[in-house]
Amino acid sequence: MAVFSLVDSGLRDVDVMLSDVLRRDNLLMAEVSDHLLKASGKRLRPALVLLSGTFGGFPSERLTRVATAVELIHMATLVHDDIIDDASMRRGVASARQRFGDPVAVLAGDFLFAKAFQLFASVNDPRVVHEAAQVVGIMCSGEIQQQLDHGRVASEAEYYSRIEAKTARFIESSCRLGAMAAGLALDEEELLARFGHEIGMAFQVVDDILDWSADPESLGKSVGEDIGQGVYTLPLIHALEQADWSDELRVYLADPKNPPVAQIRELLSQSGAIHYAETVASSYVESAKASLEALPAGPTRSSLEALAEFIVVRDH
Amino acid sequence: MAVFSLVDSGLRDVDVMLSDVLRRDNLLMAEVSDHLLKASGKRLRPALVLLSGTFGGFPSERLTRVATAVELIHMATLVHDDIIDDASMRRGVASARQRFGDPVAVLAGDFLFAKAFQLFASVNDPRVVHEAAQVVGIMCSGEIQQQLDHGRVASEAEYYSRIEAKTARFIESSCRLGAMAAGLALDEEELLARFGHEIGMAFQVVDDILDWSADPESLGKSVGEDIGQGVYTLPLIHALEQADWSDELRVYLADPKNPPVAQIRELLSQSGAIHYAETVASSYVESAKASLEALPAGPTRSSLEALAEFIVVRDH
Q1: Which of A54, A100, B40, B315 has its CA 20 to 30 A from that of A214?
Q2: What is the model's pTM?
Q3: For chain A, what percent of residues have pLDDT higher than 70?
Q4: Where are the alpha helices (DSSP H) in A214-298?
């Protein structure tokens, strides 16, 4: 992503460390890792670690280790999520469970968690390990909540708590861990954490919009997948709360296993539910940018601002 | 277990901390935790943390946290192993995956790992976190190796490396982490770690013997399960290496999905393969006891010696 240009070389260091950490152990794990590294994502979380840490001066090897560990945690949760969601595709290629089977995917995820905590431990700051372990626990609780809510229409407030636990807290942590690793003052750490929390909320709202509105090819998966998984997201929740549209929508949702995706998509667009969700995402982005104002102006702050804006315009 | 009487009150503290850690988050996780706590095991690993730490004086709250974290890691690996092995029973009750489904079991395991690392972080010693994360990685590699070896007759040497990674290293770590948490000198830590490694090897060899020779009721699962999973353990490996028995045994193993368990059991006993494995286990126990000799004599050392001896006489 162009918005990461300031930390381009830092992200290359992360990629080198990722390969190094993952390819040493055994043949199968090396194969699984190659597969995961090929289906490489946006590197949003390590970029946030590096950008946040850059307020402390030049990126250090210590910061690279924390950024790599954060990406390992992210990879571990994706590998396990694919088992949970019974997903056959991830980022346009076969998911690890599809390629190697559930047993190997369970173990590969655990292995990635273990490698992450070895790296977190290596920076010799108990706050770093505690923050990372806490956020993994919160993400699990969020996912468990999503399992419990399966097929149930949550309220908008419940939706926000769920995406906070599932997504925003970890993006918040990425910023916080960068600040910790760079030894920033606590008030700067808090501002960066708040920034991360708000773009994390925006990020998930946009993901949930894209699940309905994206071009399947750039998204790398089909449209309307969430409802097929029994997960109601903001556009649907909002449309169901509108008297003019809820009856028609309820008819479409009567058989949640085979929803008429094209009709629902059209309704979400016409009813203004997609637009509403976009407004919510934009207001999180504004709030994120506001928390940066007390931080020193310069290229790092501009990169974070650009990143926040990029989140609402991306198409995958 | 009577051999744990010296740390009985310490283990009660561990149980209180386990319940406390697991019941706070959400309803489903509380239910999963209750289920796991009911199917409670032998508490071997936390007992080893406490006994090892006792060489540093009276058990501290710090030691309780490490002992609890070690048991949480153990619980996490069991929950995930049951998914990997497609197991419906664990310690005589339904396994978590059988009771709650694979998605919840994946998440519950991750949640237990996360809680464990929060506790490890709380003792403010990066060596503790690093040791714990490293051993989780090694256990995953060991399990992955077992997946790779599925249905393949490993050599005796390969068997020992596999059980080292799968079992012995974590029992070694339990002793080492107790020594670290109690601030013992490095040479005492090494002696305790070596003790743990050797009883860990003995423990797994005895487990593998019990898979063939135990009374199914006291074992809490059926006999001959390993071979049904495509896992060849020491008694089988040894019998297959003996010219007098290997032909007959190979006939029995021709259809590994439906092995004639009673006949194989009889052959392992008659051929002396069970006896051979018992000899191996005993020699690990002797080696374990030898590494205690340089440690101060007294009730703690006697308890560890008794524990080492108990491992070879247990029936489940």
Answers
A1: A100
A2: 0.91
A3: 94
A4: 216-219, 225-228, 234-240, 243-252, 261-270, 273-292
